[in-house]
Amino acid sequence: MSLTQALKQKVTAAVETKKIADLQRDIANESGNYHTTDHGVKVADTDNWLKVSDGTHAGPSLLEDQIAREKIHRFDHERIPERVVHARGVGAHGYFKVYDDRASKYTYAPVLTDPSRSTPTFVRFSTVQGSRGSADTVRDVRGFAVKLYTDEGNWDIVGNNIPVFFIQDSIKFPDIIHAVKPEPKNEVPQGQSAHNNFWDFVGLQPESAHMVMWVMSDRGIPRSLRTMQGFGVNTYTLVNAAGERFFVKFHWIPELGVHSLMWDEALKIGGQDPDFHRKDLEEAIKNGAPAKWEFGIQVIPEANEHDFDFDILDATKVWPEDLIPVEILGEMVLNRTVDEYFTETEQVAFCTSHIVPGIGFSDDPLLQGRNFSYFDTQITRLGINWQELPINRPVCPVMNNHRDGAQRHRINPSNVNYWPNREQKFPPVPPSEGGYQDYAQKVQGIKQRVRGAKFQEHYNQAQLFYNSLTQIERNHLISAISFELSHCDDTVVYESYTKLLNNIDFELAKQVAINVGGVVPDKPARPNHGKSVPNLSQLYYKPKQPTIKSRRIAILVADGFDMVQVEGLRAAFKAGGATTWVIGPRRGWIYPDGAIVGSGKGGVWADHHFEGQRSTTYDAFIIPGGAKHAQALADNGRTIHWVREAFGHCKPIGAICEGVAFLREAVMLPGVEYNTNLESDKVVNSYGVVTVGTISAANLAADALKIEQDQ
Ligand code: HDE
Questions:
Q1: CATH top-level class for 89-388?
Q2: What pLDDT does 699 receive?
């Protein structure tokens, strides 16, 4: 058994949940290891269509070949419609649990109040705009859809990595999605919002201004799905045992902090490794670094609904955390990859309307429409019996009088399928015994097509977000909007959006307008209120202790490298929970001086050759000592490019002994300091370039590399 297999088995054994056990009954029995048709008949030849042939010439193929026909029929119908949005995604299993019962003051839902429970969980992350085959690292919102298989039924929190949305009322959803999706004339662009139609729409729909700021910030290009915050976005409600109701927003906060790529990296990885995020999630789980989030809630008692200058049911607004702090309740861990993509990640189906007793909806007009839409879309995608699919069925019993429909699997033996019935079959359950109880909400009004008065203000929070970013984050945001508007060639579009930006911030509008040839304002369209909140900058979520856990670190070597240092570095990185990759002039054994070349002994196995991987897919890299090796790296244009590219992406770069001289020559920038003194074990850290002169300092250099990569 290989190490990876052993590891996989270990991980699998460790994460058996009630849902994983439930899925086992549908896992195919592959123990027989022979080939049959779908009706179970053993097949003797899967490679040749039945023909009339003399053995020398092909001859006509016969329609009679039921085995060939079945194979082709099955293939012809393999595809189902991809999701109309969020088509590209990746999923993983895990669990959710709360730390204590503190939430019982807000809700009687055991999933949120019973610390002895571990609730099986499946999460699907996604991009929104692109098709199923689009790239992972595009600038986009990320879906963060959580299915909690509770003992009271499935609870889906269908959220995003951004806490607000483009529109306030569901009736606008087809418009925003048509606008952002590839344009109807030529189906361009794929995986991009950088086109006329999107910016045309958002320019005419100022309620989207806040969300546009978020998507154009670094949040739109996450480093990893594991380093994103998650938000329920919509306002839900909680009801406690005393019947009191609270408005609530749901939050997921990643253990490793919130990290993003740089735009240049995202663009390059889109081509170099379009599955970067999928692979990252799988790699981390398989290497024993499960993805982890804390779960928190913001709560507003029903009586305080109207205390704010924004409407708490407006999904284009956050609830500022200085006014309503997040209360941490528990954690979610994803520690198991799927066994099969299609049956799990593709067939999983989420519904905002799936809630459990103790949790309710609010009048949030975006949520109300979503509650209709998700169930509806699953019927198109998966058929009316989609809730019976293994990944979707609850772990608690399902008993009702719903019957028939295409692809019905469940067999109900009873002869009554209606209520009331003479057998008292499937009676409704009173709330005191767990039946879902709707909150008795008083409603009054005039039937009309309107939005609430406070829904009319669109710029205060866009400004709050912009004000809360660090200068570096603002620069990134300005570059991102400039990139996108540069791709709009309709003057009306980029001129009107640069005008809109002046409602958010004068400097922002000015700089973008200069960059893209828009309308450069001479004074602010409205004053900046100057308010900011610390938690809106992603730097706020830095882990308390810097960590290299699950980071990808490359060691660059050529023949003649220093083996002692490489071994020391690998051990140090492993101890810190990082994965180490050796990159060399070829995939295969690379030898230090003195080793017997060709023996494999005393060498290090390079996982990739210099052309096979680029610096972009690593978080940091280091160059060990060794005179011959350092010279070989210096003679290679690709390794020099590695250094310059990684430096440009603000990545930590380390070098030891002779490796330092190579690094200095490659970076070639004034102001960066190095320790090139082969006698000195002083660690010099300058602009993220960490150098040390002597061999004894190898471990020190490894420690120094633990600088967090925040850019
Ligand atoms: Fe969705 N959304 N959405 N959405 N959404 C879908 O449902 C819809 C919205 C989100 O991994 C669809 O199963 C409407 C907000 C995620 O399977 C569809 C409105 C948020 C996913 C749909 C919204 C989301 C979807 C397409 C406006 C963040 C992927 C396939 C009222 C809170 C779930 C599907 C997965 C998917 C409708 C707005 C998140 C068509 C009508 C706001 C994460 O039903």
A1: mainly beta
A2: 57
* Region 552-704: CATH code: 3.40.50.880
Q: What is the predicted pLDDT for the residue at 598?
A: 84
Q: Is 270 within 8 Å of 256 (Cβ atoms)?
A: no
pLDDT digits (tens, 9 = 90+) for 57-83: 889 999 999 999 999 999 999 999 999
Residue of 86, 381, 391 best suited for mutating to test ligand 1, as the one with most atoms within 8 Å of CB: 86
Low-confidence ranges of the chain (pLDDT < 50): 1-14, 697, 704, 707-711
Cα–Cα distance for residue pair 222/238, rounded to 1 Å: 31
Exposure class string for 609-648: b at 16+ Cβ within 10 A, else e: ebeebbbbbbbbbbbbbbeebbebbbebeebbebbebbbe
Strands 230-231 and 236-239: unpaired
Calpha distance 468→167 (Å, rounded)? 22
| Alpha helix (H) residue ranges in 292-398 | 365-382
3-state secondary structure at position 477: helix
Compute the distance between CA of residue 677 and CA of residue 655 in angstroms, rounded to an integer. Answer: 12
Task: Tell which residue, 170, 155, 161, 98, has the closest CA to residue 128.
Answer: 161
Residue nearest to atom 7 of ligand 1 (CA): 374
At residue 298, φ and ψ (nearest 5 deg) are: -110, 135
Q: Which residue positions form the known binding site? A: 374
- Determine the pLDDT at residue 13: 45
CA 332 to ligand 1 centroid distance, Å: 21
Q: Which of 555, 619, 612, 23 is nearest to 283 (CA)?
A: 619
Domains 89-388 and 552-704 share a fold: no
The span from the CA of 660 to the CA of 622, in Å, is 10
Q: Give catalytic residue positions.
A: 86, 160
pLDDT of residue 482: 98
- Statement: 455-541 belongs to CATH 1.20.1370.20: yes
Contact 516, 486 (CB under 8 A): yes
Neighbours of 684 (CB within 10 A): 18
- Tens of pLDDT along 261-288? 999 999 999 999 999 999 999 999 999 9
pLDDT of residue 11: 44
Rounded to the nearest angstrom, the distance between the alpha carbon of 192 and the centre of ligand 1 is: 18
Structure tokens at 285: 């789980």
Residue 601 has a pLDDT of 84
Domain ranges for the chain:
40-78, 89-388, 455-541, 552-704
Annotated binding-site residue numbers for heme? 374
Residues with CB under 6 A from ligand 1: 83-86, 89, 124, 126, 143, 145, 158-160, 165, 170, 173, 233-234, 315, 349-350, 366, 369-370, 373-374, 377-378
The distance of Cα 76 from the centroid of its chain, to the nearest Å, equals: 31
How open is the CA angle 121-123-128, to the nearest 5 degrees? 160
ipTM of the complex, rounded to two decimals: 0.97
Question: CB atoms < 10 A from the CB of 49, how many?
Answer: 16
User: Model pTM?
Assistant: 0.95
* Nearest alpha carbon to residue 316 among 172, 502, 194: 172
Q: How far is CA 688 from CA 371, 601, 636, in A?
A: 48, 34, 23
Among 373, 378, 382, residue to substitute to test ligand 1 (most atoms within 8 Å of Cβ): 373
User: Are 327 and 407 a contacting pair, CB within 8 Å?
Assistant: no
Residues belonging to the chain:
711
Computed over its alpha carbons, how large is the radius of gyration of the chain? Answer: 29
